[in-house]
Amino acid sequence: AEHMGADLENVLFTEEQIRERLAELAAQVWEDYHDKDVLLVGVLRGAVMVMADFSRALPGSAEMDWMAVSSYGSGTKSSGVVRILKDLDTDISGRHVLIVEDIIDSGLTLSWIRTNLESRGPASVEICTLLRKPEAAKVQIDVKYVGFEIPNAFVVGYGLDYAEKYRNLRVIGTLAEHVYS
Ligand code: PRP
Ligand code: MN
Ligand code: MG
């Protein structure tokens, strides 16, 4: 594989910018959860990098679990109908759940996940996402912790993929046009 940086049009966020913003979010989250037993729920696979760095920026211990979901039907991720590929191993009844995501695009995935988790009787469900595209929103979601709001462009890196590639890129950037063609 060629050097991944060559496939980027623009770097939106450097490693340092991501690290600093996650540290700020972690401080904010800890203020709200230091006296609670928080369960971090990561959404596979995009959220892996955010979970790794965000969770380690928390000053205290936090439990972690994972869900994997996929859209039904068309293959586009915007159907809004979601199927669970891997459910939580944890019973979240009475628990304070914090969903950890890499990006909220249309909002359909997270909207469905939140409703699904809320039906299991948790004490609370909040959302922490590194990126959000306000212009792409198809559904209104109340997100308590947002790293960066970004324009409606295709972004990769730091967990975010294009056809499963670029997840391991250290920065977040927009893809160059030659990659599509
Ligand atoms: C991406 C991203 C979010 C979701 C956001 O996941 O990681 O989970 O899409 O899109 P939405 O707000 O329009 O629903 P994807 O379905 O590509 O799976 P992945 O995390 O395995 O890449
Ligand atoms: Mn995802
Ligand atoms: Mg993806």
CATH topology value: Rossmann fold
- Sketch the topology as an H/E string, one letter per element: EHEHEEEHEEEEH
What hetero molecules are in the model? 1-O-pyrophosphono-5-O-phosphono-alpha-D-ribofuranose, manganese (II) ion, magnesium ion
What distance lies between the first and last C-alpha atoms, to the nearest angstrom? 17 Å
Low-confidence stretches: none
CATH arch. level architecture: 3-Layer(aba) Sandwich
Q: Any idea of the CATH class?
A: Alpha Beta
Mean pLDDT across residues: 94
Q: Which class do the helix and strand fractions yield?
A: alpha/beta
Number of helices: 4
Helix content: 10-25%
Biggest beta-sheet profile: 6 strands, mixed
Gross morphology is globular
Please give the order of strands in the largest beta sheet. Answer: 4-3-2-5-6-7
Percent strand = 25-35%
Number of strands: 9
Domains (count): 1
Radius of gyration: 16 Å
